[in-house]
Structures are given as C-alpha cells and as structure tokens.
Amino acid sequence: MTTSLGVRDVVHTAQVDLTSTGDTIVLTPGVPIDVLRWGIVADALIDVGAGMTVSLDHRVTAGSDTGRVEIDSFSQTTDIAAGAGVSRRLTDEAAATTAVDGSTVNTGGTSPYEVDPGEQLVFDVDDAADTAGTGYVFIEYLVKPAQGTRYTTTMTETAVT
Fold first, then answer.
1. Domains of the chain (ranges plus CATH)?
2. Band of pLDDT at residue 4, cut at 50, 70 and 90
3. Ramachandran quadrant class, 35 (left: phi over 0; alpha: psi -120 to 50; beta: rest)
C-alpha cells in the first residue's frame, strides 16, 4: 500500500484527434508522481460509432517501448458531447486522508500508480472514434518529493553556476 501525501495537480494537453489510432500524448515527469485519474474532455462531439477504446500506458524508460505496460483502459460505446468528458479513477478513495493542500488522498484499497523521473505516461488510442472526435486528455496526479530513491535513482542535480 502506498500512502500519498503530496500536492495534487492535473496536466491538460493540447487538442488531440481521436479518429486515428496510436500514441497521442506523452508525459515525462521531472519528479516522482502518483497517478490518480485520467480521461478525456470533448471540445467537439466525439462520434464513437461502434466504440472507441483508449488506454494509459507506462514506459519504464522514456522514449522506449521495451517493457511498456498498459496501466488502464476503457471503451466508450456512446458519443461524448462537446464540453462533456469521461474519466477513470486509478485509486479507491474510500479509505482516505487529507493531504497538506486539503485534497483527499488515497491511503487504502487500490494504490496510485507510481511514475518516476526517466519514465513516461502515454495516452494511446487503441480503437479510434468513428467520423468525428477531438478533445483534451487530462491526467490527475500527486507530486511526490524530489528526494529519496524514486528521484535520485534516475536524476542527478548539478550546482548552480
């Protein structure tokens, strides 16, 4: 079990085309993060047709698909209206505590997904929307301290000159 006591943040991406398959967004954190939730907000109707499937993947080495794993995925079988969205929670906040910023933080059940410096998160369209579909991907996470083995294993700090 991971106890996460950090600052909650959300990264929002540029507009992505959901009508073609493949990797669309890559996040490379400079400090350790614990991923809590991810999803899509439509800026125009997303016509999913027979269904659209997207996934959030983890690259254990930035820029390399060796050892890449799928963290989570979901299939959407109904259209998503402009201004609406779909999200997936990676944690169970039923057992929770309050973080230093006042947000609710998971302390039991399913743990957040850890991503360290030198690793990446990849948003992947596995089965594309039908004829129309653009939106913004978001990833909600907790920023972990830039210290300890989750940081120093891959990052080297240099002195200010």
1. 7-145 (2.60.120)
2. very low
3. beta
Question: Regarding beta strands 22-27 and 7-17, do their DSSP bridges make them parallel or antiparallel, or are they unpaired?
Answer: unpaired
How would DSSP label each residue in 55-107? EEEEESBTTB-TT-EEEEEEEE-S-B-TT-EEEEE-S-TTSEEE-TTS-EEE-
Distance separating alpha carbons of residues 9 and 25, to the nearest angstrom: 17
Give whole-number Cα distances, 80 to 15, 34, 44, 53, 77, in Å. 15, 28, 8, 13, 9
DSSP class of residue 161 equals -
- pLDDT per position as a tens digit, 86-123: 998 886 655 555 655 555 554 544 567 889 888 999 99
